[in-house]
Design a protein that fits this description.
Layout: H1 3-8, H2 11-22, H3 26-36, H4 40-49, H5 55-65, H6 68-74
Helix pairs in contact: 3-4, 4-5
Length: 91
């Protein structure tokens, strides 16, 4: 979270979030912060770096935030993401 944003908030608002972030893996922390700040492309890069266990979440994030073009740049062509049927994302 941006330091400036923290200064404007009551500690009761941001301390629980910081405590939750501490429980997460460092790369997933970065994803969560970028997602919260609506830096979706950066968040996607961090989510990619979190590994295969976050693959389904990554697919949903790409679909929800309409990051298809960004995903094509971030993921290598051999990545399974390229083989997803776009119709399967609409459930």
């Amino acid at each position: 979270m941006n330091k400036t944003n923290l200064n404007l908030k009551d500690p009761k608002e941001y301390i629980p979030m910081l405590n939750e972030l501490r429980k997460l893996e460092p790369t997933y922390q970065k994803f969560t912060i970028d997602k919260h700040l609506k830096k979706y492309e950066s968040a996607l890069k961090h989510l990619k770096d979190c590994g295969a266990e976050h693959y389904e979440e990554c697919l949903k994030f790409v679909a929800d935030q309409k990051l298809h073009s960004a995903a094509l740049k971030i993921f290598p062509p051999a990545h399974p993401l390229y083989q997803v049927n776009p119709l399967s994302l609409n459930h």
